[in-house]
Amino acid sequence: MGAAFVVGVFGVLILAHATYSTIHYRELLKIMEEEFSGPPINVLFELLLGFVLCLWAALAVPGKFLSILPHSEENRIVSLPENLDFMIFNHRGKVFPTVTDLKLKH
């Protein structure tokens, strides 16, 4: 369990506390018979802080980002799948003209 995971759990706890605070604030407004116009400013700061912490953890926990190089040998298809039943060649894409059809018409 890394530091990013702990930060993510802390961010979720902050978001849960902000939710609880908003619900409690609305109940107090109902008791005082006032209209709810929005959460207090401290709850908005909690929401922002919790969101930033969760976002950072979501980007850091899965691991290091690897670049995708299109001409890399690791990205090449070595062989076709064993089961060819799921390969579909008859689809709506055949309606669009191919490059060779355009050249033949001129």
From TrEMBL:
Keywords: Endoplasmic reticulum, Membrane, Transmembrane, Transmembrane helix
Pfam families linked: MMgT
Membrane-topology descriptor: Multi-pass membrane protein
Keyword presence, Amino-acid biosynthesis: no
InterPro entries reported for this sequence: MMgT (IPR018937)
Molecular function per GO: inorganic cation transmembrane transporter activity
Entry GO CC: early endosome; EMC complex; Golgi apparatus; plasma membrane
Subcellular location: Endoplasmic reticulum membrane
Membrane-crossing residue ranges in chain numbering: 42-61
Domain of life: Eukaryota
Assembly behavior: Component of the ER membrane protein complex (EMC).
Family: Belongs to the membrane magnesium transporter (TC 1.A.67) family.
Protein name: Membrane magnesium transporter
Record lineage: Eukaryota, Viridiplantae, Streptophyta, Embryophyta, Tracheophyta
